[in-house]
């Protein structure tokens, strides 16, 4: 059916999602995907409901409820795409998600994109007031770079975990909350239901390793500084875990020490996953010739 033209000011009668021009014009957002920019506009639109419904936390900050299912419906995409877009907005500091546990949906804080408030995105790394935390990295360049050596950046990074209980949460509980969020645990379990036991084993291993007081840790037969291992583990995301599960499923050799196998796989996952996908791409291109 052919569509009609707009006449006069009739176009103003419709409602629209508004995407800030800054997301297209400012250099700091140049690597943000168009789909993520669109999702940010949708989240901004949903913020109007927060004002109407009085959805404010104890510090007066507005939040919304926008689940993975909401993203899928809004953008007509699958779980993987929806998860990736939310993670992308987090990496650019445009949203924060606060997990509440017990099957309740996360609170989504849509951040102010304006230049005046952008400094706070990078200066304040603590996640709200509950002892929870943001995603592993706010800087997409750092989270996506290919690291083959333990560089000075890895060694110098620190994370706000405490050996003593903070706000009623122990160090282990804080780490469990952190990895539950950074690994998108609820989505991961839904996408890989047959690997539930292994996924929980991986989370327990990550928590125990990052909580250790040891100075050195043995990874793939080598002793590595615990801070370097902790830094790498806290940059892992759901894609890395799925890659490790895939490697585990494809492994035909007997695994004598599952803990050491998983430690090595998790430590090397960012590098080996990238190399694996690159090799597959090269193979596909070669077969097309």
UniProtKB/TrEMBL annotation:
UniProt domain Replication initiator A N-terminal: residue ranges: 15-89
Pfam family, one: RepA_N
Organism of origin: Faecalibacterium prausnitzii L2-6
Region of interest: Disordered: 129-165
The protein's name in its UniProt record: Replication initiator protein A (RepA) N-terminus
Compositional bias ranges of the Basic and acidic residues kind: 146-157
Residue span(s) of domain DUF6017: 169-286
Domain of life: Bacteria
């Amino acid at each position: 059916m052919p569509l009609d033209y707009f006449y006069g000011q009739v176009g103003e009668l419709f409602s629209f999602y508004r995407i800030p021009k800054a997301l297209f014009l400012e250099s700091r957002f140049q690597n943000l995907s168009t789909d993520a920019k669109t999702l940010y506009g949708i989240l901004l639109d949903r913020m109007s409901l927060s004002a109407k419904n009085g959805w404010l936390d104890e510090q007066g900050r507005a939040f919304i409820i926008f689940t993975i299912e909401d993203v899928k419906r809004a953008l007509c995409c699958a779980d993987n795409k929806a998860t990736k877009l939310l993670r992308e907005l987090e990496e650019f500091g445009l949203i924060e998600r606060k997990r509440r546990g017990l099957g309740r949906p996360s609170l989504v804080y849509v951040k102010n994109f304006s230049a005046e408030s952008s400094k706070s995105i990078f200066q304040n790394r603590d996640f709200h007031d509950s002892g929870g935390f943001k995603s592993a990295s706010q800087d997409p360049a750092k989270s996506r770079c290919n690291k083959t050596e333990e560089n000075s950046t890895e060694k110098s990074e620190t994370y706000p975990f405490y050996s003593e209980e903070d706000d009623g949460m122990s160090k282990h509980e804080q780490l469990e909350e952190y990895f539950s969020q950074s690994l998108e645990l609820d989505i991961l379990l839904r996408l890989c239901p047959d690997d539930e036991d292994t996924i929980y084993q991986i989370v327990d291993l990550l928590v125990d390793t990052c909580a250790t007081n040891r100075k050195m840790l043995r990874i793939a037969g080598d002793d590595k500084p615990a801070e370097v291992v902790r830094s790498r583990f806290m940059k892992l995301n759901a894609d890395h875990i799925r890659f490790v599960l895939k490697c585990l499923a494809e492994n035909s050799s007997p695994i004598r020490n599952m803990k050491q196998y998983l430690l090595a796989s998790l430590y090397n996952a960012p590098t080996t996953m990238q190399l694996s996908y690159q090799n597959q791409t090269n193979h596909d291109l070669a077969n097309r010739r």
